Amino acid sequence: MDSTDEILHVFPPLFRVFKDGRLERLSGNDTVPASVDQTTGVRSKDVTINANSGVSARLYVPKSIDTDQKLPLVVYFHGGAFVVDTAFSPLYHTHLNNLAAEANMVIVSVDYRRVPEHPLPIAYEDSWDAVQWIASHSSRNGQEPWINIYADFQSVFFGGDSAGANIAHNMAVRAGSDNPDGLIVSGIVLVHPFFWAKEAGVGQLIHPESRAFAEKLWLSVNPCSSGLDDPLISPDPRKFSLGCKRVIIFVADRELLKHWGLYYKELLEQIGWGGKVQVVETKDVDHIFHIYDPTTDKAKSLVKLVASFVNEDKTV
């Protein structure tokens, strides 16, 4: 075997890393076009956010909207360990069609640049670029008519799953410090967030082998990072200002990442954050189960809970 083909790390079913530094995607390469969804009637289209960097997004709006009606806006960041899948992947297209229909909301699904062509922290910078682009529509004269016409800028949420939930959290932190004009972030939706830490209150629950695996994964996508003490992967609410007042965290019973989601909630409560945080634990499921099979009762329940969270202010 050629030494350049020697495999250094494998992260099934996502990607593998070769000894020479190359990274090969093992899944998440398929795409589907924007369309009118035959099941939900949700409309979608693709837009360019930054022609220079290539950052783009897929927009979703529900089937029937009154032009005078303003709907909650969710800025969504897809998962895939920062490596696989895009905003145009069939699994995410199906999920966001279902979510837009259930919650009656506008969704901007951000297509940030991925590892290995663009190592972290580029995905975070691309995502912030998208947030600022969305904020530029708050005066109703931005580039994209769907956002100008339909989005309620008093009801904006950041959301995502896995690596995308990590991005959503980090965008809320940046919004808390940078305060983009015209954008008020109401809350964040973190589904099975990719958080970890070298040392934390839940450290005794995690096997050293799992911790080593997490660190290999993180350093594979962010080679310049200091490791699992990096605040991008190890959020400590005592050290940042969260730019929203409501947080919902979904955790999966069968995965180790759930411990960090639970710990994140505990820290927010301990510091007297002042907002509302809740955790929803789904029993007997694995990581992002709702993306892989949206037809199950548990997946449908998760979508309904996200919809309820986003629309909470409208029902009280």
TrEMBL record:
GO terms for molecular function: hydrolase activity. Residues 74-290 form the Alpha/beta hydrolase fold-3 domain. InterPro entries: AB_hydrolase_3, AB_hydrolase_fold, Carboxylest/Gibb_receptor. It comes from the Eukaryota. The lineage of its organism: Eukaryota, Viridiplantae, Streptophyta, Embryophyta, Tracheophyta. It comes from Heracleum sosnowskyi. SUPFAM superfamilies: alpha/beta-Hydrolases. Belongs to the 'GDXG' lipolytic enzyme family. This is Carboxyesterase. PANTHER family: ARYLACETAMIDE DEACETYLASE (PTHR23024), CARBOXYLESTERASE 12-RELATED (PTHR23024:SF467).
